Amino acid sequence: MYDVVALGEAMLRLVPPNYQRLEQTTSFNVTIGGAELSVAANVSRLGLRSAWVSKLPTNPMGRMIANKAREHGVDTSHIVWTKEGRAGLYFVEFGSTPRATSVIYDRGGAAASMLGPGEIKWDEILKGTRLFHTSGITPALSQGCREATVEVIEKARAAGCKTSFDLNYRAKLWSAADAKACFERILDKVDIVITTQFDAEEVLGYTGEYEDIAKQFSDNFGTPIVAITLRGVKTVLTGTWTSLVYAEGKVYRDDVAEIEIVDRFGAGDSFTAGFIYGYLNEGVEQGLRIGDAMAAIKHSIPGDINWITMEDVQKFLESKDFRVQR
Amino acid sequence: MYDVVALGEAMLRLVPPNYQRLEQTTSFNVTIGGAELSVAANVSRLGLRSAWVSKLPTNPMGRMIANKAREHGVDTSHIVWTKEGRAGLYFVEFGSTPRATSVIYDRGGAAASMLGPGEIKWDEILKGTRLFHTSGITPALSQGCREATVEVIEKARAAGCKTSFDLNYRAKLWSAADAKACFERILDKVDIVITTQFDAEEVLGYTGEYEDIAKQFSDNFGTPIVAITLRGVKTVLTGTWTSLVYAEGKVYRDDVAEIEIVDRFGAGDSFTAGFIYGYLNEGVEQGLRIGDAMAAIKHSIPGDINWITMEDVQKFLESKDFRVQR
Amino acid sequence: MYDVVALGEAMLRLVPPNYQRLEQTTSFNVTIGGAELSVAANVSRLGLRSAWVSKLPTNPMGRMIANKAREHGVDTSHIVWTKEGRAGLYFVEFGSTPRATSVIYDRGGAAASMLGPGEIKWDEILKGTRLFHTSGITPALSQGCREATVEVIEKARAAGCKTSFDLNYRAKLWSAADAKACFERILDKVDIVITTQFDAEEVLGYTGEYEDIAKQFSDNFGTPIVAITLRGVKTVLTGTWTSLVYAEGKVYRDDVAEIEIVDRFGAGDSFTAGFIYGYLNEGVEQGLRIGDAMAAIKHSIPGDINWITMEDVQKFLESKDFRVQR
Amino acid sequence: MYDVVALGEAMLRLVPPNYQRLEQTTSFNVTIGGAELSVAANVSRLGLRSAWVSKLPTNPMGRMIANKAREHGVDTSHIVWTKEGRAGLYFVEFGSTPRATSVIYDRGGAAASMLGPGEIKWDEILKGTRLFHTSGITPALSQGCREATVEVIEKARAAGCKTSFDLNYRAKLWSAADAKACFERILDKVDIVITTQFDAEEVLGYTGEYEDIAKQFSDNFGTPIVAITLRGVKTVLTGTWTSLVYAEGKVYRDDVAEIEIVDRFGAGDSFTAGFIYGYLNEGVEQGLRIGDAMAAIKHSIPGDINWITMEDVQKFLESKDFRVQR
Amino acid sequence: MYDVVALGEAMLRLVPPNYQRLEQTTSFNVTIGGAELSVAANVSRLGLRSAWVSKLPTNPMGRMIANKAREHGVDTSHIVWTKEGRAGLYFVEFGSTPRATSVIYDRGGAAASMLGPGEIKWDEILKGTRLFHTSGITPALSQGCREATVEVIEKARAAGCKTSFDLNYRAKLWSAADAKACFERILDKVDIVITTQFDAEEVLGYTGEYEDIAKQFSDNFGTPIVAITLRGVKTVLTGTWTSLVYAEGKVYRDDVAEIEIVDRFGAGDSFTAGFIYGYLNEGVEQGLRIGDAMAAIKHSIPGDINWITMEDVQKFLESKDFRVQR
Amino acid sequence: MYDVVALGEAMLRLVPPNYQRLEQTTSFNVTIGGAELSVAANVSRLGLRSAWVSKLPTNPMGRMIANKAREHGVDTSHIVWTKEGRAGLYFVEFGSTPRATSVIYDRGGAAASMLGPGEIKWDEILKGTRLFHTSGITPALSQGCREATVEVIEKARAAGCKTSFDLNYRAKLWSAADAKACFERILDKVDIVITTQFDAEEVLGYTGEYEDIAKQFSDNFGTPIVAITLRGVKTVLTGTWTSLVYAEGKVYRDDVAEIEIVDRFGAGDSFTAGFIYGYLNEGVEQGLRIGDAMAAIKHSIPGDINWITMEDVQKFLESKDFRVQR
Question: What is the distance in angstroms between the Cα of B295 and the nearest Cα belonging to chain F?
Answer without folding.
Answer: 20
